[in-house]
Amino acid sequence: MFWLGRLFAASADGFAARANAAKGAGSRIDAIDFWRGFALLTIFIDHAPDNVLQYVTIRNICFSDAAELFVFLSGVSVALAYGTRFFRGERAAAVKAVLRRAFTLYWVQMLISLLIIALFAAAADYFDNDDLIDDDDRSFILDEPLTAIPAMLALVHQLVVVNILPLYVVLLLLAPALFMLARRNDWLMLSASAALYAGARVFDLNLPSWPLEDSWFFNPLAWQLIFAIGLFVGRRARSGGIGYDPRLYSACLAVVVAAAIVSSDGFGLAHGLSHALTPVLDHTKTGLGLARLVNFLALAYVIAHSGLTARIRLTPIFAPLALMGRHSLPVFSTGSVLAALGEVIVETRAAEFSHRLALGGMIAVAGILVHYLIARLLAARRAAQPRPVLTVLQWRRAH
What is the pTM of this model? Predict the structure, then answer.
Protein backbone atom coordinates (compact mmCIF):
# COMPACT_ATOMS: atom_id res chain seq x y z
CA MET A 1 0.00 0.00 0.00
CA PHE A 2 2.91 2.37 0.69
CA TRP A 3 4.22 1.77 -2.85
CA LEU A 4 0.76 2.43 -4.31
CA GLY A 5 0.45 5.66 -2.31
CA ARG A 6 3.89 6.67 -3.51
CA LEU A 7 2.79 6.01 -7.08
CA PHE A 8 -0.32 8.18 -6.54
CA ALA A 9 1.78 11.11 -5.38
CA ALA A 10 4.57 10.73 -7.89
CA SER A 11 2.20 10.32 -10.82
CA ALA A 12 0.37 13.42 -9.69
CA ASP A 13 3.51 15.48 -9.18
CA GLY A 14 5.09 14.32 -12.43
CA PHE A 15 2.00 15.17 -14.42
CA ALA A 16 1.72 18.51 -12.66
CA ALA A 17 5.31 19.44 -13.40
CA ARG A 18 4.93 18.72 -17.10
CA ALA A 19 1.56 20.42 -17.31
CA ASN A 20 2.94 23.47 -15.55
CA ALA A 21 5.86 23.62 -17.97
CA ALA A 22 3.45 23.40 -20.90
CA LYS A 23 1.17 26.14 -19.60
CA GLY A 24 1.00 29.21 -21.76
CA ALA A 25 0.03 32.72 -20.91
CA GLY A 26 -3.66 31.83 -20.80
CA SER A 27 -5.49 30.15 -17.97
CA ARG A 28 -5.85 26.80 -19.75
CA ILE A 29 -3.25 24.05 -19.80
CA ASP A 30 -3.03 22.83 -23.37
CA ALA A 31 -1.54 19.45 -22.40
CA ILE A 32 -4.73 18.65 -20.48
CA ASP A 33 -6.84 19.70 -23.47
CA PHE A 34 -4.73 17.50 -25.76
CA TRP A 35 -5.04 14.36 -23.66
CA ARG A 36 -8.74 14.99 -23.12
CA GLY A 37 -9.17 15.24 -26.89
CA PHE A 38 -7.17 12.03 -27.25
CA ALA A 39 -9.47 10.30 -24.74
CA LEU A 40 -12.62 11.52 -26.51
CA LEU A 41 -11.49 10.30 -29.92
CA THR A 42 -10.38 6.97 -28.45
CA ILE A 43 -13.76 6.50 -26.78
CA PHE A 44 -15.49 7.23 -30.08
CA ILE A 45 -13.29 4.80 -32.03
CA ASP A 46 -13.83 2.04 -29.46
CA HIS A 47 -17.60 2.62 -29.43
CA ALA A 48 -17.98 2.91 -33.19
CA PRO A 49 -18.78 -0.25 -35.20
CA ASP A 50 -15.94 -2.73 -35.74
CA ASN A 51 -13.14 -0.88 -37.52
CA VAL A 52 -9.42 -1.18 -38.15
CA LEU A 53 -8.60 1.78 -35.89
CA GLN A 54 -9.79 -0.18 -32.86
CA TYR A 55 -6.70 -2.37 -33.19
CA VAL A 56 -4.38 0.54 -32.39
CA THR A 57 -6.17 2.17 -29.44
CA ILE A 58 -4.58 1.98 -26.00
CA ARG A 59 -6.83 -0.81 -24.77
CA ASN A 60 -4.81 -3.20 -26.97
CA ILE A 61 -1.62 -2.61 -24.98
CA CYS A 62 -2.99 -1.68 -21.54
CA PHE A 63 -5.21 -3.10 -18.83
CA SER A 64 -6.84 0.34 -18.76
CA ASP A 65 -8.35 2.35 -21.60
CA ALA A 66 -9.58 5.85 -22.39
CA ALA A 67 -12.25 5.73 -19.67
CA GLU A 68 -9.63 6.01 -16.92
CA LEU A 69 -8.00 8.93 -18.71
CA PHE A 70 -11.37 10.66 -19.17
CA VAL A 71 -12.33 10.36 -15.49
CA PHE A 72 -8.85 11.29 -14.29
CA LEU A 73 -8.77 14.43 -16.45
CA SER A 74 -12.28 15.26 -15.29
CA GLY A 75 -10.93 15.37 -11.76
CA VAL A 76 -8.01 17.52 -12.84
CA SER A 77 -10.32 19.93 -14.66
CA VAL A 78 -12.75 20.16 -11.74
CA ALA A 79 -9.89 21.04 -9.40
CA LEU A 80 -8.67 23.75 -11.77
CA ALA A 81 -12.09 25.15 -12.69
CA TYR A 82 -13.84 25.03 -9.32
CA GLY A 83 -11.34 23.95 -6.68
CA THR A 84 -9.27 27.10 -7.09
CA ARG A 85 -12.28 29.24 -6.13
CA PHE A 86 -13.24 26.89 -3.31
CA PHE A 87 -9.82 26.96 -1.68
CA ARG A 88 -9.45 30.72 -1.88
CA GLY A 89 -12.60 31.13 0.18
CA GLU A 90 -15.35 31.36 -2.45
CA ARG A 91 -16.84 28.08 -1.30
CA ALA A 92 -20.52 28.82 -1.93
CA ALA A 93 -19.83 30.15 -5.43
CA ALA A 94 -17.63 27.15 -6.26
CA VAL A 95 -20.23 24.64 -5.06
CA LYS A 96 -22.96 26.40 -7.05
CA ALA A 97 -20.75 26.29 -10.15
CA VAL A 98 -20.13 22.56 -9.66
CA LEU A 99 -23.86 21.90 -9.30
CA ARG A 100 -24.61 23.95 -12.42
CA ARG A 101 -22.08 21.88 -14.35
CA ALA A 102 -23.61 18.67 -13.02
CA PHE A 103 -27.05 19.83 -14.18
CA THR A 104 -25.63 20.69 -17.62
CA LEU A 105 -24.20 17.20 -17.93
CA TYR A 106 -27.51 15.75 -16.76
CA TRP A 107 -29.64 17.40 -19.43
CA VAL A 108 -27.04 16.62 -22.10
CA GLN A 109 -27.23 12.98 -21.00
CA MET A 110 -31.00 13.07 -21.36
CA LEU A 111 -30.83 14.77 -24.76
CA ILE A 112 -28.33 12.40 -26.36
CA SER A 113 -30.06 9.35 -24.84
CA LEU A 114 -33.39 10.38 -26.38
CA LEU A 115 -31.72 11.22 -29.70
CA ILE A 116 -30.02 7.85 -29.85
CA ILE A 117 -33.11 5.82 -28.95
CA ALA A 118 -35.14 7.83 -31.50
CA LEU A 119 -32.46 7.15 -34.12
CA PHE A 120 -32.51 3.40 -33.48
CA ALA A 121 -36.31 3.25 -33.39
CA ALA A 122 -36.71 5.22 -36.61
CA ALA A 123 -34.04 3.19 -38.40
CA ALA A 124 -35.53 -0.10 -37.19
CA ASP A 125 -38.93 0.92 -38.53
CA TYR A 126 -37.66 2.37 -41.82
CA PHE A 127 -35.32 -0.53 -42.66
CA ASP A 128 -37.52 -3.17 -41.01
CA ASN A 129 -34.53 -4.30 -38.96
CA ASP A 130 -35.43 -5.27 -35.40
CA ASP A 131 -31.80 -6.07 -34.60
CA LEU A 132 -31.27 -2.33 -34.01
CA ILE A 133 -33.59 -2.41 -31.00
CA ASP A 134 -32.91 -5.94 -29.85
CA ASP A 135 -30.74 -4.90 -26.88
CA ASP A 136 -32.52 -5.04 -23.51
CA ASP A 137 -31.81 -1.39 -22.66
CA ARG A 138 -33.25 -0.16 -26.00
CA SER A 139 -36.21 -2.51 -26.31
CA PHE A 140 -37.32 -1.77 -22.76
CA ILE A 141 -37.58 1.98 -23.51
CA LEU A 142 -39.70 1.32 -26.58
CA ASP A 143 -41.85 -1.40 -24.99
CA GLU A 144 -42.51 0.37 -21.68
CA PRO A 145 -41.85 4.10 -22.17
CA LEU A 146 -43.98 5.18 -19.19
CA THR A 147 -41.64 3.26 -16.91
CA ALA A 148 -38.41 3.61 -18.86
CA ILE A 149 -38.45 7.39 -19.34
CA PRO A 150 -38.73 8.16 -15.59
CA ALA A 151 -35.99 5.59 -14.98
CA MET A 152 -33.79 7.37 -17.52
CA LEU A 153 -34.54 10.71 -15.86
CA ALA A 154 -33.43 9.20 -12.55
CA LEU A 155 -30.24 7.87 -14.23
CA VAL A 156 -31.07 4.32 -13.13
CA HIS A 157 -31.65 3.14 -16.71
CA GLN A 158 -28.82 3.92 -19.12
CA LEU A 159 -28.02 3.13 -22.72
CA VAL A 160 -24.77 1.26 -23.15
CA VAL A 161 -23.27 3.84 -25.51
CA VAL A 162 -23.83 6.77 -23.12
CA ASN A 163 -23.19 5.43 -19.63
CA ILE A 164 -20.13 7.46 -18.67
CA LEU A 165 -21.85 10.85 -18.31
CA PRO A 166 -24.06 9.59 -15.43
CA LEU A 167 -20.85 8.60 -13.67
CA TYR A 168 -19.48 12.11 -14.22
CA VAL A 169 -22.68 13.64 -12.82
CA VAL A 170 -22.35 11.61 -9.61
CA LEU A 171 -18.67 12.48 -9.32
CA LEU A 172 -19.45 16.18 -9.65
CA LEU A 173 -22.03 15.88 -6.88
CA LEU A 174 -19.34 14.22 -4.77
CA ALA A 175 -16.74 16.90 -5.56
CA PRO A 176 -17.76 19.39 -2.80
CA ALA A 177 -17.27 16.69 -0.16
CA LEU A 178 -13.84 15.88 -1.60
CA PHE A 179 -13.00 19.59 -1.59
CA MET A 180 -13.93 19.80 2.10
CA LEU A 181 -11.62 16.91 2.92
CA ALA A 182 -8.82 18.33 0.76
CA ARG A 183 -9.20 21.68 2.51
CA ARG A 184 -8.01 19.94 5.67
CA ASN A 185 -5.46 17.70 3.97
CA ASP A 186 -5.06 16.28 0.46
CA TRP A 187 -3.96 12.94 1.82
CA LEU A 188 -7.06 12.80 4.00
CA MET A 189 -9.14 13.19 0.85
CA LEU A 190 -7.25 10.41 -0.92
CA SER A 191 -7.45 8.15 2.14
CA ALA A 192 -11.22 8.60 2.41
CA SER A 193 -11.60 7.98 -1.32
CA ALA A 194 -9.42 4.86 -1.15
CA ALA A 195 -11.44 3.59 1.84
CA LEU A 196 -14.69 4.03 -0.13
CA TYR A 197 -13.12 2.24 -3.09
CA ALA A 198 -11.98 -0.64 -0.88
CA GLY A 199 -15.41 -0.92 0.72
CA ALA A 200 -17.12 -0.97 -2.67
CA ARG A 201 -14.79 -3.70 -3.92
CA VAL A 202 -14.82 -5.86 -0.78
CA PHE A 203 -18.57 -5.71 -0.17
CA ASP A 204 -19.55 -5.52 -3.86
CA LEU A 205 -21.36 -2.19 -3.45
CA ASN A 206 -22.72 -0.40 -6.49
CA LEU A 207 -25.63 1.85 -7.45
CA PRO A 208 -28.61 -0.20 -8.68
CA SER A 209 -30.27 -0.06 -12.07
CA TRP A 210 -34.04 -0.09 -12.34
CA PRO A 211 -36.38 -1.58 -13.39
CA LEU A 212 -34.01 -3.99 -15.16
CA GLU A 213 -32.21 -5.85 -12.40
CA ASP A 214 -28.61 -4.84 -12.74
CA SER A 215 -26.18 -2.20 -11.50
CA TRP A 216 -24.27 0.72 -13.02
CA PHE A 217 -21.67 -0.31 -15.57
CA PHE A 218 -19.28 2.35 -14.19
CA ASN A 219 -19.54 1.89 -10.43
CA PRO A 220 -19.31 5.45 -9.01
CA LEU A 221 -18.27 4.13 -5.59
CA ALA A 222 -15.14 2.65 -7.18
CA TRP A 223 -14.45 5.10 -9.99
CA GLN A 224 -14.51 8.06 -7.61
CA LEU A 225 -10.98 7.04 -6.59
CA ILE A 226 -9.44 7.91 -9.94
CA PHE A 227 -11.49 11.13 -9.95
CA ALA A 228 -10.08 11.98 -6.50
CA ILE A 229 -6.56 11.30 -7.76
CA GLY A 230 -7.33 13.73 -10.59
CA LEU A 231 -8.36 16.34 -8.00
CA PHE A 232 -5.08 15.67 -6.21
CA VAL A 233 -3.22 16.31 -9.46
CA GLY A 234 -5.27 19.36 -10.32
CA ARG A 235 -4.40 20.92 -6.97
CA ARG A 236 -0.74 20.84 -8.07
CA ALA A 237 -1.08 21.40 -11.80
CA ARG A 238 0.05 25.01 -11.64
CA SER A 239 2.81 24.67 -9.06
CA GLY A 240 4.98 21.74 -10.15
CA GLY A 241 5.89 18.73 -8.03
CA ILE A 242 8.60 16.63 -6.47
CA GLY A 243 10.28 15.84 -9.77
CA TYR A 244 11.65 12.74 -11.36
CA ASP A 245 12.43 9.61 -9.34
CA PRO A 246 14.50 7.15 -11.44
CA ARG A 247 13.61 4.14 -9.29
CA LEU A 248 9.89 4.81 -9.47
CA TYR A 249 10.15 5.56 -13.18
CA SER A 250 11.82 2.19 -13.74
CA ALA A 251 9.12 0.42 -11.73
CA CYS A 252 6.35 2.20 -13.66
CA LEU A 253 8.02 1.42 -16.98
CA ALA A 254 8.19 -2.24 -15.97
CA VAL A 255 4.45 -2.19 -15.16
CA VAL A 256 3.66 -0.55 -18.51
CA VAL A 257 5.76 -3.07 -20.46
CA ALA A 258 4.33 -6.05 -18.55
CA ALA A 259 0.78 -4.84 -19.16
CA ALA A 260 1.51 -4.35 -22.85
CA ILE A 261 2.90 -7.89 -23.13
CA VAL A 262 -0.08 -9.47 -21.37
CA SER A 263 -2.74 -7.34 -23.10
CA SER A 264 -1.32 -7.98 -26.56
CA ASP A 265 -0.74 -11.73 -26.01
CA GLY A 266 3.00 -11.17 -26.08
CA PHE A 267 2.61 -8.90 -29.14
CA GLY A 268 0.95 -11.79 -30.94
CA LEU A 269 3.50 -14.42 -29.96
CA ALA A 270 1.67 -15.98 -27.00
CA HIS A 271 -1.94 -16.56 -27.97
CA GLY A 272 -4.31 -16.76 -24.98
CA LEU A 273 -1.96 -15.08 -22.51
CA SER A 274 -4.32 -12.18 -21.79
CA HIS A 275 -7.35 -14.44 -21.25
CA ALA A 276 -5.32 -16.58 -18.86
CA LEU A 277 -3.91 -13.76 -16.73
CA THR A 278 -6.37 -10.86 -16.72
CA PRO A 279 -8.90 -12.59 -14.41
CA VAL A 280 -6.13 -13.15 -11.87
CA LEU A 281 -5.00 -9.52 -12.12
CA ASP A 282 -8.34 -7.94 -11.07
CA HIS A 283 -9.09 -6.45 -14.46
CA THR A 284 -12.78 -5.58 -14.00
CA LYS A 285 -13.90 -2.35 -15.62
CA THR A 286 -17.13 -1.90 -13.68
CA GLY A 287 -15.33 -1.87 -10.34
CA LEU A 288 -12.11 -0.22 -11.58
CA GLY A 289 -9.93 -3.28 -11.01
CA LEU A 290 -6.63 -2.74 -9.23
CA ALA A 291 -4.68 -3.85 -12.30
CA ARG A 292 -6.42 -1.18 -14.39
CA LEU A 293 -5.78 1.51 -11.78
CA VAL A 294 -2.09 0.71 -11.24
CA ASN A 295 -1.48 0.35 -14.98
CA PHE A 296 -3.05 3.74 -15.67
CA LEU A 297 -1.08 5.51 -12.93
CA ALA A 298 2.15 3.90 -14.10
CA LEU A 299 1.44 4.89 -17.69
CA ALA A 300 0.63 8.46 -16.66
CA TYR A 301 3.90 8.73 -14.74
CA VAL A 302 5.95 7.33 -17.63
CA ILE A 303 4.31 9.65 -20.16
CA ALA A 304 4.70 12.65 -17.86
CA HIS A 305 8.45 12.11 -17.47
CA SER A 306 9.20 10.86 -20.97
CA GLY A 307 8.64 14.21 -22.65
CA LEU A 308 6.10 12.63 -24.98
CA THR A 309 3.61 15.50 -24.74
CA ALA A 310 6.29 18.04 -25.62
CA ARG A 311 7.27 16.00 -28.67
CA ILE A 312 3.67 15.60 -29.81
CA ARG A 313 3.21 19.35 -29.44
CA LEU A 314 5.59 19.77 -32.39
CA THR A 315 3.42 17.57 -34.63
CA PRO A 316 0.30 18.54 -36.62
CA ILE A 317 -2.00 16.42 -34.46
CA PHE A 318 -1.52 18.36 -31.23
CA ALA A 319 -3.58 21.47 -32.04
CA PRO A 320 -6.64 19.62 -33.43
CA LEU A 321 -6.80 17.24 -30.47
CA ALA A 322 -6.31 20.10 -27.99
CA LEU A 323 -9.11 21.99 -29.73
CA MET A 324 -11.43 19.00 -29.39
CA GLY A 325 -10.48 18.60 -25.75
CA ARG A 326 -11.23 22.27 -25.15
CA HIS A 327 -14.83 21.67 -26.26
CA SER A 328 -15.15 18.28 -24.60
CA LEU A 329 -18.87 18.11 -23.84
CA PRO A 330 -20.23 18.91 -27.33
CA VAL A 331 -17.50 16.78 -28.89
CA PHE A 332 -18.33 13.84 -26.62
CA SER A 333 -22.04 14.25 -27.38
CA THR A 334 -21.27 14.30 -31.10
CA GLY A 335 -19.22 11.14 -30.78
CA SER A 336 -21.98 9.31 -28.91
CA VAL A 337 -24.56 10.08 -31.58
CA LEU A 338 -22.13 9.32 -34.41
CA ALA A 339 -21.29 5.93 -32.88
CA ALA A 340 -25.00 5.09 -32.83
CA LEU A 341 -25.41 6.34 -36.40
CA GLY A 342 -22.45 4.20 -37.43
CA GLU A 343 -24.10 1.15 -35.92
CA VAL A 344 -27.24 1.89 -37.96
CA ILE A 345 -25.19 2.21 -41.15
CA VAL A 346 -23.33 -1.06 -40.55
CA GLU A 347 -26.46 -3.01 -39.63
CA THR A 348 -28.39 -1.80 -42.66
CA ARG A 349 -25.69 -1.40 -45.32
CA ALA A 350 -22.99 -3.95 -44.45
CA ALA A 351 -24.21 -6.35 -47.15
CA GLU A 352 -23.22 -3.80 -49.79
CA PHE A 353 -19.57 -3.89 -48.67
CA SER A 354 -17.22 -6.83 -49.00
CA HIS A 355 -15.28 -5.98 -45.85
CA ARG A 356 -17.09 -4.98 -42.65
CA LEU A 357 -13.92 -3.63 -41.00
CA ALA A 358 -13.28 -1.35 -43.97
CA LEU A 359 -16.80 0.06 -43.70
CA GLY A 360 -16.31 0.60 -39.99
CA GLY A 361 -12.97 2.27 -40.71
CA MET A 362 -14.57 4.73 -43.12
CA ILE A 363 -17.24 5.52 -40.54
CA ALA A 364 -14.58 6.07 -37.86
CA VAL A 365 -12.49 8.37 -40.07
CA ALA A 366 -15.56 10.36 -41.10
CA GLY A 367 -16.56 10.62 -37.44
CA ILE A 368 -13.13 11.94 -36.46
CA LEU A 369 -13.40 14.65 -39.12
CA VAL A 370 -16.86 15.60 -37.83
CA HIS A 371 -15.46 15.84 -34.29
CA TYR A 372 -12.83 18.27 -35.51
CA LEU A 373 -15.29 20.33 -37.56
CA ILE A 374 -17.61 20.67 -34.56
CA ALA A 375 -14.70 21.86 -32.43
CA ARG A 376 -13.62 24.33 -35.14
CA LEU A 377 -17.13 25.73 -35.42
CA LEU A 378 -17.44 26.14 -31.67
CA ALA A 379 -14.05 27.83 -31.48
CA ALA A 380 -14.96 30.22 -34.32
CA ARG A 381 -18.27 31.01 -32.66
CA ARG A 382 -16.55 31.76 -29.36
CA ALA A 383 -13.96 33.95 -31.06
CA ALA A 384 -16.70 35.93 -32.83
CA GLN A 385 -18.50 36.74 -29.58
CA PRO A 386 -17.65 40.17 -28.10
CA ARG A 387 -15.76 39.95 -24.84
CA PRO A 388 -17.29 41.72 -21.84
CA VAL A 389 -15.43 44.71 -20.48
CA LEU A 390 -14.07 44.19 -16.99
CA THR A 391 -15.19 46.62 -14.36
CA VAL A 392 -12.55 48.14 -12.10
CA LEU A 393 -13.71 45.93 -9.22
CA GLN A 394 -13.52 42.76 -11.35
CA TRP A 395 -10.04 43.72 -12.56
CA ARG A 396 -8.81 44.19 -9.01
CA ARG A 397 -10.22 40.82 -7.96
CA ALA A 398 -8.59 39.11 -10.94
CA HIS A 399 -5.23 40.66 -10.16
Answer: 0.89
